[in-house]
Predict the structure.
Amino acid sequence: MRFTVFSCALLFAGSVFAAQVLSPVGQRVMAPDFELADTEGRMHRLSDYRGKTVIINFWTTWCPPCREEIPSMNRAWNILQQEDVVILAINMGEDEDTIFIFTADYPADFPLLLDREGEVIAQWPVKGLPTTYVVAPDGRIAYRAIGGREWDDPEFIRKIRDLRAQ
């Protein structure tokens, strides 16, 4: 594997979740495009989702905050999936079997993508796991979150929905 081992974001006062904030990205830059297969072999290219809000989550199965936030992402997906919102969870360096076992305890109805060699994470400014970016419909990065979050929080849902109006 070519990627560096990232720390799990457990630095938050003994809590698995960080402060419930989505940090706005000051100067919105274009999100780096990528193409990755999901656990079922379907290909996903970020640029194919232009015109939609895309939540991109970098995670691993061994990371406790990653495990804790997947259920809230799934609840957010159930709320937002009919609203031109896409969630793509990019797994760092693990294989389909490891993820399959993980999803028995932490089901996810949104695509789980495989970045086995760390090529995609190398293009994104990820400092720890989990790290999540929210990409606006114009393809620019609007928000960043380092550490676990409750993605079905009403304020998060509002911010994600508001990107459609911008």
